[in-house]
Amino acid sequence: MSILVLADLHEGQLAGATAHVVAAAHAIGGDIDVLIAGEGVQAAPDAAAKLDGVNKVRVADNAVYAHQLAEPMGALLVELVGDYTHVLASASTTGKNVLPRLAALKDVSQLSDVIAVESADTFKRSIYAGNAIATVKSDDTLKVLTVRTTAFDAVGDSGSATVEAVDVVIENTQSSFVKEELAQSDRPELGGAKVVISGGRGMGNGDNFKLLNGIADKLGAAVGASRAVVDAGFVPNDMQVGQTGKIVAPDLYIAVGISGAIQHLAGMKDSKVIVAINKDDEAPIFQVADYGLVGDLFEILPELESKL
Ligand SMILES: Cc1cc2nc3c(=O)[nH]c(=O)nc-3n(C[C@H](O)[C@H](O)[C@H](O)COP(=O)(O)OP(=O)(O)OC[C@H]3O[C@@H](n4cnc5c(N)ncnc54)[C@H](O)[C@@H]3O)c2cc1C
């Protein structure tokens, strides 16, 4: 077996997700290479070379890969895929954008959102918003997988892989990068935060999210939200946790004024400790909560912040 892992990059640096995808590659077994494709990625190859069990880091550093657009990235992978038996990426927006293109160009099926490896050709993935687990076996000679990073513990960083440049440049006439609008925040990134505090419709309006911000600052937490408040325009959609938002699995998840619809649970129920604050003691969120506080969030949150 020989596996190629497409690395996630964040502002040219190696994103934490890659160490989780390499862990999934370990579970499959065989030689593991990591592909870094981007522009000006000096630090990322060295960081990838340190990931445990990585054999070789392949680096395609060119302006055409600057924003990891699906068209040049898919074509690059087709060029590089050679004898690899598996290509893995995280189930991030980039992985979900690039790998289906590779799968289509190679005429194989993609396996999305893999949460466990049974063997080199058999994987588990969650379906129906996490309410059922499908075990799927692929007969394709090339397996193309996106991996749910929260399901695999990150590998360590005591490796020493070799690093080699890839000089394949795919001109891209099909798509172009226009602009990126990023929310500026000193708080940790929602997907990788160890503590997340999320607000739902019970918050009443976007202004009241400042009640969560104060607690988040004290706990070093990221702030998330239910879809109801995103749809209502209280907060931006990059804060959404759930089936159609981000999947998180922090050490501590605090759900405030969130009822616990299955689509929300799909994004947070693997959190290690779940705390729910809700005035309705029959809210479904209490069925998954380790600790529940029944009461009015407008009284509980200021008290919680002052005690912290
Ligand atoms: C295809 C599909 C995909 C979806 N994807 C997502 C997703 O990714 N993420 C997601 O979150 N949802 C998603 N949803 C929506 C989901 O079904 C729910 O509608 C949504 O999660 C409800 O959000 P909520 O819990 O904030 O609101 P509500 O269900 O209205 O709950 C509000 C809660 O606040 C409590 N509350 C009110 N006032 C107070 C107070 N003063 N103090 C304490 N508690 C209070 C209430 O008791 C209630 O439990 C999806 C739905 C569909 C159909």
Automatic annotation (TrEMBL):
GO terms for molecular function: electron transfer activity; flavin adenine dinucleotide binding. Its cofactor is FAD. Residues 3-181 form the Electron transfer flavoprotein alpha/beta-subunit N-terminal domain. FAD binds at residues 201, 226-227, 240-244, 257-264, 278. Keywords: Electron transport, FAD, Flavoprotein, Transport. The electron transfer flavoprotein serves as a specific electron acceptor for other dehydrogenases. It transfers the electrons to the main respiratory chain via ETF-ubiquinone oxidoreductase (ETF dehydrogenase). PANTHER family: ELECTRON TRANSFER FLAVOPROTEIN ALPHA, ELECTRON TRANSFER FLAVOPROTEIN SUBUNIT ALPHA, MITOCHONDRIAL. Belongs to the ETF alpha-subunit/FixB family. This is Electron transfer flavoprotein subunit alpha. It comes from Halomonas citrativorans.
